[in-house]
Design brief:
By secondary structure, the protein is mostly beta strands. It is built from two helices and 17 strands. The chain has two domains: 20-156, Neuraminidase; 159-218, no CATH class. It has helices spanning 4-18, 206-216, and strands at residues 24-30, 33-38, 43-45, 52-57, 63-68, 74-77, 80-83, 86-91, 98-102, 117-121, 127-132, 140-145, 151-156, 161-162, 172-179, 185-192, 198-203.
């Protein structure tokens, strides 16, 4: 006959294995720190320092990408001096934090990396896209592969959305500032491939985006 203590230990072990793991239901920012809200509604701070923003969950809810401000380090851009900034990724429990991209100045606006915003995962969770300050009239969109850390310029744009499903899954919806041949300028949403190729215009306003979603995001 097994010892009662041994039996109790086995029961506890089985209970622990059967218990559901905490699941990241959402993430938010509180005074510059990333907070994870699990499926039970409990809040847990994941970063400290008060410099973090723009947290986004990966499609599998196991990782978080976010922006870390660098007020002590500035970059000269076409719009003036901006915070160099960094893009980071971590597990939902706050471990395995690593920097993906570090801001840097460059003569070519396509290579300027500063004042990051709108980070977002690709549908397969293998790539992160984000926006950077670039030209006076437009920001730039860059991508970074999580496995290799390779960063590249994708396209110009003043907004960023990833198509999550359907025919155009993984493509980008970007608001672009363009110029008419005669004179003047306009701002339209475009469907863009992950390599930066313009696939097709979507339209000028939010109504166009909603129509695109209703037709193609299924």
């Amino acid at each position: 006959m097994k010892h009662p203590t041994t039996l109790l230990g086995a029961v506890l072990l089985l209970a622990m294995c059967a218990a559901p793991h905490a699941y990241a239901a959402s993430v938010k920012v509180d005074r510059g720190n990333i907070i994870m809200i699990d499926d039970a509604g409990s809040a847990r701070p994941l970063t400290a320092g008060g410099l973090d923003s723009d947290p986004v969950l990966s499609p599998d809810h196991l990782s978080i990408v976010f922006v870390r401000r660098t007020p002590h380090r500035m970059v000269n851009t076409a719009s003036g001096a901006e915070s160099a900034d960094e893009a980071w990724v971590m597990h939902i429990d706050g471990t395995a934090q690593r920097r993906l991209v570090e801001g840097a100045g460059a003569e070519d606006p396509k290579r300027t990396l500063a004042a990051f915003s709108s980070p977002i995962f690709s549908p397969d969770g293998q790539t992160v896209y984000f926006m950077s300050v670039a030209w006076v009239t437009s920001s730039s969109i860059h991508s970074v592969e999580l496995s290799s850390g390779k960063e590249r310029f994708v396209t110009d744009g003043n907004s960023l959305e990833i198509v999550p499903a359907g025919k155009y899954r993984g493509d980008l919806v970007v608001n672009k500032h363009k110029y008419w041949l005669a004179s003047g300028s306009y701002d339209w949403y475009w469907l863009v491939s992950p390599t930066g190729k313009e696939i097709a215009p979507i339209g000028p306003g939010d109504e166009s985006i909603e129509e695109f979603r209703s037709l193609f995001v299924k």
